[in-house]
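Hi C.,

You asked whether I'd gotten around to modeling the 210-residue construct. I have! Everything is below, sequence then structure, no commentary in between.
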Amino acid sequence: MYRLGYLEGRLKGYDREEDMLKLAGKKEEPKPKPKIDDEKRQKYSSNNLVQLARMTGKYAGIENMRKRRLLKEPEGFFLDDEQNQLTCSICGEHYYGSEMWWNLDGTRCKDCLRNIKQGVIPSLKPRYDDKSNWFESWQIKSNHGVHPSSVRKLVREGLLHSRDLKRKDGNVYYTVYLVSENQEFLKKYPKNKSDIKMTIADKDGKSIEL
C-alpha cells in the first residue's frame, strides 16, 4: 500500500525446500500408496518383532552415516548433530553429542577419550561386549564371586590390577581392570557361568529365545 509518501505492507518468507519448489512451479509428485493397508499396519505395528526390526533398521542407518563420515575423519569425531543424550561405552555416563566422541570402537565421553589419549588406558572395547578386553568393579562380585570388601586387599596383594580414570581436576570417576593385566586373578577366580536367557514373544504369543 502506498499513500502520502509512506509504504506499508507485509513480507512472507519461505525456508522449506518443498515450498520453494512450489514457488518455482514444480508440481508435487503423488506419493506412492503404502504396500501395507492401515488395518494390517495397526495390527502388527506394536508387535515385538516389528518394533525390534524398526529399531535395528534405524540404528543401522545411523551407523552407516557415521561410517561414511569416518572417510574424512578416520580417527573419529564428536557427534555435534546428536540431539539426544548418549551413553559412553566405557564409563556408562550420559552426555550430549557435543561431548561424545565416536569411532568404530564405540562412543567415548570427553573424559574417557582424554584418558585414552594420555595413555591411562588403551582403546577399550564397549562395555558388556562378550569379547571385551576389560571388566569393571561390579563384575568382580557378580561374575567372579569376590566381595567388594576383598577387592582392596587383592589390589594390595598385587593379585588384582586396576586403572583409575580421572577427570581434569584429578578426581577418580571410574576404575577399569584390563584382562591382560589380571590373568592370575582370572585363573584363581574364573567367571561364573550364567543360565539367564533372553526371550521375546512373536505375534502369536510364542516365546523366541535370543
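If it helps when you're writing up: The chain has one domain: 45-209.

Thanks,
B.
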